[in-house]
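Hi R.,

As promised on Friday, here is the backbone we talked about, encoded as structure tokens. Could you run it through your design pipeline when you get a chance and send me back a sequence?
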């Protein structure tokens, strides 16, 4: 069996096992101690939809032309006058011709379910249109109107579908876990693939009331850096942990622990700040020691937690510094299921590394984000210890040695111009080879209007 848990917007240091001293995540910490915890794990993009497309296809977001969250800021609001570029159009649905992870698993005889966030298209492009037998709570939107029952909000007219209201008052994360456990219990005699993309810890930041009270009290007594911490966010994180614990307990009691591969990860770096005065929308994640967060091309936007456990098959309590990325899960899970991939993908199977500690045979990772978010349009290449960021508006280059400077405090581009030029050429060649769409000039551009 395969259980793939993806936590929305969970930052690199948002778990205790990754260094967070405020949040309590004993169940996820235990999961890490029972398997492999990665310290150089990357999301395929700095925002959600592209990474989810990569998980489903094993391809770079450029290849499926989903390079921004769906539908994207400029699609909704148009280009702002101080934005130099009009961003390229993207697919608003994962193309049906893509051979998804769910379709691979179905071919191998697995029962499949997607329970939680989808954000890869609406009607006609839902999980059940992409190979899943069951879809619970996955629809076109990227966040729920509310985590509180009945999961609606006056300012939004959408309803999480299909999510049958049960007449209880469960917190959304608890409810999704109930559905996940029900699915695993019903399919326990057959191989199953459960994709569980929690909506937590994405906005709206709404902690479960009992956990919210706990962290409000804890922050009052804590003497560290708490002014930027959010009790709602911490409560939402512990709610995930609690529900991971519930699922691990089910697997153990059902006798499925040794026959279930568990993957726990995120879709992008943690959200650092919001502009609203409402205290539910102040700074949330804690990406220390990494720079910035979601929506930027720095490590805080791209590096994410990743834990893999397969009791009896993978050595426990391992720490891996191998560089991995979201696309790797597609070939990894396919290999676990015994399925050969005969079409082109970008991912590399992690199974030899997980099972035998073999090094991962890959030199270079690429990102392409020609959109405005909390950062500017640009591209990234990481090769070995070096990372280069290219910004499209002014051609600015930033070069970092991530081994010596994981916080990206020292731009080395002027000190090592040859290395910067070498990486830039590789990045630009990769874009050309993959027909990466670039932004075009904004005819209404006026930098004087930038607030």
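Update: got your reply. Pasting your designed sequence below so it's all in one thread:
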């Amino acid at each position: 069996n395969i259980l793939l848990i993806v936590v929305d917007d969970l930052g690199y240091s948002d778990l205790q096992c990754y260094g967070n001293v405020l949040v309590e995540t004993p169940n996820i910490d235990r999961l890490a101690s029972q398997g492999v915890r990665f310290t150089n794990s990357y999301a395929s993009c700095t925002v959600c939809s592209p990474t989810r497309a990569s998980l489903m296809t094993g391809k770079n977001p450029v290849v499926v032309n989903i390079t921004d969250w769906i539908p994207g800021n400029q699609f909704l609001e148009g280009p702002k006058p101080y934005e130099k570029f009009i961003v390229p159009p993207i697919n608003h649905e994962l193309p049906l011709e893509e051979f998804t992870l769910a379709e691979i698993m179905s071919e191998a005889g697995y029962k499949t379910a997607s329970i939680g966030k989808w954000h890869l298209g609406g009607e006609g492009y839902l999980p059940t249109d992409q190979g899943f037998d069951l879809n619970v709570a996955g629809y076109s939107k990227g966040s729920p109107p509310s985590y509180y029952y009945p999961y609606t909000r006056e300012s939004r007219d959408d309803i999480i579908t299909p999510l049958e209201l049960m007449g209880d008052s469960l917190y959304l994360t608890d409810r999704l876990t109930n559905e996940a456990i029900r699915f695993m219990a019903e399919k326990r005699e057959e191989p199953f693939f459960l994709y569980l993309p929690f909506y937590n810890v994405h906005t709206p930041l709404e902690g479960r009331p009992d956990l919210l009270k706990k962290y409000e009290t804890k922050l009052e007594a804590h003497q560290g850096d708490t002014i930027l911490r959010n009790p709602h966010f911490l409560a939402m994180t512990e709610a995930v942990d609690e529900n991971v614990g519930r699922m691990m307990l089910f697997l153990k009691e059902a006798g499925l622990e040794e026959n279930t591969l568990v993957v726990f990860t995120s879709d992008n770096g943690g959200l650092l700040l919001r502009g609203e005065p409402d205290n539910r929308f102040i700074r949330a994640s804690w990406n220390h020691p990494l720079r910035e967060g979601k929506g930027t091309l720095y490590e805080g936007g791209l590096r994410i937690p990743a834990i893999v456990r397969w009791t009896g098959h993978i050595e426990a309590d391992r720490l891996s510094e191998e560089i991995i990325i979201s696309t790797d899960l597609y070939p990894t899970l396919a290999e676990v299921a015994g399925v050969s991939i005969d079409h082109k993908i970008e991912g590399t199977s992690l199974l030899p590394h997980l099972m035998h500690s073999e090094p991962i045979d890959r030199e270079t990772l690429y990102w392409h984000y020609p959109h405005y978010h909390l950062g500017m349009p640009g591209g990234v290449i990481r090769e070995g210890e070096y990372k280069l960021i290219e910004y499209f508006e002014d051609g600015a280059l930033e070069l970092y040695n991530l081994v010596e400077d994981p916080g990206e405090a020292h731009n080395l581009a002027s000190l090592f111009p040859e290395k910067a030029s070498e990486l830039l050429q590789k990045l630009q060649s990769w874009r050309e080879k993959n027909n990466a769409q670039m932004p075009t000039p904004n005819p209404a551009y006026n930098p004087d209007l930038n607030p």
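One thing I noticed while checking it: The chain has a mean pLDDT of 94.

Thanks again,
M.
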